Amino acid sequence: MRGFFIFTLIIELNDMSILTVGTMAFDSIETPYGSVNKVIGGACTYISWAASYWCSEINLVSIIGDDFPEDEIRSLQQRGVSTDGLVRMKGKKSFYWSGKYHNDMNMRDTLVTDLNVLADFNPVLPKSYLHSKYIMLGNLTPSIQLSVLNQLPIKPKLVVLDTMNYWMDTALDELYLVLRKVDVLTINDEEARQLSGERSLLKAAQKIHSFGPRYLIIKKGEHGALLFHNGLMFFAPGLPIAEVIDPTGAGDSFAGGLIGYLARTDDISFNNMKTALIYGSTMASFCVENFSLNKLKNLSQEEIYIRLEQFKDLSSFDENQLGLAN
Amino acid sequence: MRGFFIFTLIIELNDMSILTVGTMAFDSIETPYGSVNKVIGGACTYISWAASYWCSEINLVSIIGDDFPEDEIRSLQQRGVSTDGLVRMKGKKSFYWSGKYHNDMNMRDTLVTDLNVLADFNPVLPKSYLHSKYIMLGNLTPSIQLSVLNQLPIKPKLVVLDTMNYWMDTALDELYLVLRKVDVLTINDEEARQLSGERSLLKAAQKIHSFGPRYLIIKKGEHGALLFHNGLMFFAPGLPIAEVIDPTGAGDSFAGGLIGYLARTDDISFNNMKTALIYGSTMASFCVENFSLNKLKNLSQEEIYIRLEQFKDLSSFDENQLGLAN
Question: Nearest residue on chain A to B80, judged by CA atoms?
Answer without folding.
Answer: A326
